[in-house]
């Protein structure tokens, strides 16, 4: 019987638990109403807070505006009125009219600086600035002012009229072209920078950024300075100018040190070396006794030796004296070219016929081998009388000689020039020998020149280099 009672009580408790458990998915309406009330109150509080903040901000702005107005009023009351005398105390420059647009632009800039310094009002700027227009500029403004409507002329209108007169569009184009073509050239870096700044004011579109301005300035530098700055990749104008000045200064210092070292070592500079070499070359290339130098062939052997010696002197070596040649008596290196020269008088090599001593007798000392101008014997009265009373020279028919040679020999001989020349606009094969005593022309070429040939008073015998003799009877 006891177990049955326990079962009945258990069933009763289960039924009571099921009755007390609320149904699943249902919310109490009181809770929902409470939540809605809280949400509405929160939104109302937030709106009130925003309205309060907006009101506070407006009050602050009104207070600041009020203070600013009071400050301006106090400043206007305290500041003295700007007069022309106070503006004149700033010493603005005068403008007398100029064709240089740089000067006109600079005058406007100085006026604007004076306006800012003295705090000139807009209604007084044109009046004050026009006072400093003198001479031609003053006449221009009187004419332009009469053509303008009555009333106040603003500073902007004055600037427009001023630039139309003294800085028109075609001048602006010229200044732009000058800026684009600007190069350093012979100017120093500071001079180039001054000119660059002066022209850049007229072309603001090319220098409106630091990078563009620096690049444009760098492009106009000398090539060796520009190559040094290119590896640095500088982007600011000030950095490019500074580095360019440093490079130029260091280069000048290096050149001065180099010149000082050369001066201490006794090495002449490049200009002195070139001038000395040219002087020596001119002496070697020119004929003696005022002869024509246009047909003289240069002494290639000796000049080459001099070049080698000159190169040695540039390396710091002192130039030794050249040895004296035993053949010609001059100082040079290499083989003397006179060894291949044959005298027409004595048939001996080593000298020309003009320098031959055979047959020459001095009238002072009566010794052969030299003339009276080269005689070292003391002058006496008897010698002078003999020289004055010397018998006249009898004209003897000379034995003329010509130097017959090939083209190759003419090229190798420094005293002979061979080539084609124009004689009366007719090309002729010419061979010029500085040691020859006569000049000859072929009959064929003489006919081409329409030359009239006349017989000689006597037969002229010509001896050529192979000892053959030719008789000439026409001239």
Q: In brief, what are we looking at here?
A:
It holds the Pfam family RVP_2. The chain is built from 17 helices and five strands.
Structure characterization notes:
With 475 residues, the chain is mostly helical. 52% of the residues lie in helices and 7% in strands. The strands form 2 sheets. The protein has a 3-stranded mixed sheet, with no helix packed on it. Strands 2-3 form a two-stranded antiparallel sheet. A hairpin with a 5-residue loop joins strand 4 (455-463) and strand 5. Helix 4 (101-118) packs antiparallel against helix 7 and helix 13 runs antiparallel to helix 14. It is elongated. The termini are far apart. Mean pLDDT is 75; it is low at 6-13, 15-19, 280-317 and 384-399.
Please state the oligomeric state of the protein chains shown. Answer: single chain
Largest sheet, order of strands side by side? 1-4-5
Largest sheet entry: 3 strands, mixed
| Low-pLDDT segments | 6-13, 15-19, 280-317, 384-399
Overall average pLDDT: 75
Tell me the fraction of residues in β-strands, as a range: 5-15%
What's the end-to-end separation, in Å? 188 Å
Task: Report the structural category.
Answer: mainly alpha
**Helix/strand order:** HHHHHHHHHHHHHHHEHEEHEE
Rg calc: 55 Å
Could you say which overall geometry the principal axes of the C-alpha atoms support?
A: elongated
| Helix segment tally | 17
Total strands: the figure is 5
How much helicity do the residues have?
A: 40-55%
């Amino acid at each position: 019987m006891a177990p049955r009672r326990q079962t009945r009580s258990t069933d009763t408790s289960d039924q009571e638990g099921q009755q007390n458990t609320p149904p699943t998915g249902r919310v109490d309406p009181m809770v929902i109403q409470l939540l809605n009330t809280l949400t509405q109150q929160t939104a109302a509080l937030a709106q009130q807070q925003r309205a309060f903040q907006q009101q506070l901000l407006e009050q602050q702005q009104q207070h600041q505006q009020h203070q600013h107005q009071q400050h301006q009023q106090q400043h206007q009351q305290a500041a003295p009125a700007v007069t022309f005398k106070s503006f004149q105390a700033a010493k603005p420059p005068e403008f007398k009219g100029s064709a240089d647009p740089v000067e006109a632009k600079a005058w406007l800039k100085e006026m604007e600086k004076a306006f800012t310094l003295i705090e000139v009002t807009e209604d007084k700027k044109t009046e004050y600035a026009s006072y400093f227009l003198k001479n031609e500029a003053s006449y221009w403004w009187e004419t332009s002012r009469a053509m303008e409507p009555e009333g106040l002329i603003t500073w902007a209108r004055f600037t427009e009229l001023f630039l139309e007169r003294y800085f028109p569009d075609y001048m602006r184009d010229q200044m732009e072209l000058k800026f684009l073509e600007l190069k350093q050239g012979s100017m120093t870096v500071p001079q180039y920078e001054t000119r660059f700044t002066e022209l850049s004011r007229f072309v603001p579109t090319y220098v409106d950024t630091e990078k563009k301005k620096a690049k444009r300035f760098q492009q106009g530098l000398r090539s060796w300075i520009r190559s040094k700055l290119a590896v640095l990749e500088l982007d600011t104008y000030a950095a490019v100018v500074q580095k360019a000045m440093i490079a130029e200064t260091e280069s000048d210092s290096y050149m001065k040190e180099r010149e000082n070292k050369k001066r201490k070592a006794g090495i002449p500079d490049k200009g002195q070396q070139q001038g000395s070499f040219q002087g020596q070359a001119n002496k070697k290339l020119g004929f003696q006794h005022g002869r024509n130098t246009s047909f003289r062939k240069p002494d290639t052997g000796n000049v080459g030796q001099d070049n080698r010696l000159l190169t040695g002197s540039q390396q710091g070596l002192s130039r030794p004296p050249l040895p004296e040649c035993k053949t010609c008596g001059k100082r040079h290196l290499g083989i003397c070219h006179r060894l291949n020269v044959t005298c027409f008088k004595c048939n001996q090599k080593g000298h020309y016929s003009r320098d031959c001593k055979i047959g020459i007798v001095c009238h002072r000392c009566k010794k052969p081998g030299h003339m009276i101008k080269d005689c070292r014997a003391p002058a006496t009265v008897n010698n002078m009388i003999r020289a004055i009373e010397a018998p006249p020279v009898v004209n003897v028919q000379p034995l003329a000689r010509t130097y017959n040679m090939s083209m190759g020999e003419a090229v190798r001989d420094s005293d002979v020039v061979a080539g084609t020349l124009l004689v009366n606009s007719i090309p002729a094969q010419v061979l010029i020998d500085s040691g020859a005593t006569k000049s000859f022309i072929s009959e064929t070429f003489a006919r081409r020149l329409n030359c009239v040939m006349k017989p000689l008073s006597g037969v002229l015998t010509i001896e050529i280099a192979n000892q053959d003799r030719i008789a000439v009877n026409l001239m």
